[in-house]
Amino acid sequence: MSDLNSFIFKNSPKWLDNYTAHWSAPSNIALVKYWGKQDPQIPKNPSVSFTLDKCRTHTKVYFQKQPHPQESFLFEISFDGIPKPEFKPKVQSFLNRIKDYVPYLMHYSLYIETSNTFPHSSGIASSASAMGALAACIMDLEVQLDPLQTPSYTTQKTSFLARLGSGSAARSIQGPIVGWGQHAKTPSSSDLFGVKIENTHPVFSRFCDSVLLVDKGQKAVSSTLGHNLMQGHPFASTRFEQARGHYGQLIDILKNGDIESFVQLVEKEALSLHAMMLTSEPQYVLMQPNTLHIIQSVWEYRKKTGRQVAFTLDAGANVHLLYPNDIKELVQSFIENDLSSFCQNGAYIHDQVGTGIKKM
Ligand code: PMV
To answer: Which of 45, 75, 76, 299 has a CB 3.0–4.6 Å from the CB of 243, allowing a cystine?
Structure first.
């Protein structure tokens, strides 16, 4: 059930006059990175991520039935209780993209209230959790209108819709480990939605992720622009091949629990992602001096202690440190004693892998 047509709502809805949906969705951190796409939000290579637990967006949507179907979407949005008209264009383009799949939405006005559990302007990308939570609220309404829908279809379509808001959001619906993008190694995988990676080694279902906040500012180059710069990039096809290879290797590692290989692969992915930025036209650098200080310190720490801590980066200067739960106390004191000085105002967030969206 992975063709576009299967995601179009075709049943006759059991209309409700008012409905309030309240969901939270987590952020995720990619292990194999998605970088480069084609319309409509189809990834150039498959990716895999850890779903996070504490870094989440909470969203409440008040749906109000309108006497007649609307020509264009009627909606308002607030963030932390404050109206945010500046968020409307992003939501508007998301709603336009999903419109054909959720035709019933034209019969409702939407009042969207949203907030994040992580500090505003922490430099943590919130688009995955934000689009995940909004998609979950819309699908909650859909289930009310079509109560016979199966839970597995609902989950798949939630990821499908979230993907149309932000590619990586496709991976924030389930957990603890999700793949997005077709790859022979995961027979159920699809370019259209994320799928849970099954039968992984238990060490990975309790993995920790500490986010070291190196730079809380806005990114100099958005990820939308970054994805576009992969078109015509001199290393694009090599990079997509590399990522496809890494996907296959990582699936084996996730099943056999080989942490040393995990560390090597995850770091290679992070540096390859940033290598694409360094060699784009125009070229740009999102890492900062403290990003590199942290990377060096992690390498020294690993060499000195033999403890398997890996760094990874998303499209920004912040560093995610990934490590098994059984060395949590040791690694967290390393962060406090040796790495927090490289963080803006000493700030970091200890998170861990989680299970995906939650109804509130
Ligand atoms: O979902 P987007 O368009 O914000 O892109 C996310 C890109 C990376 O975070 C760098 C990699 C990934 O796979 O999440």
So the answer is: 45
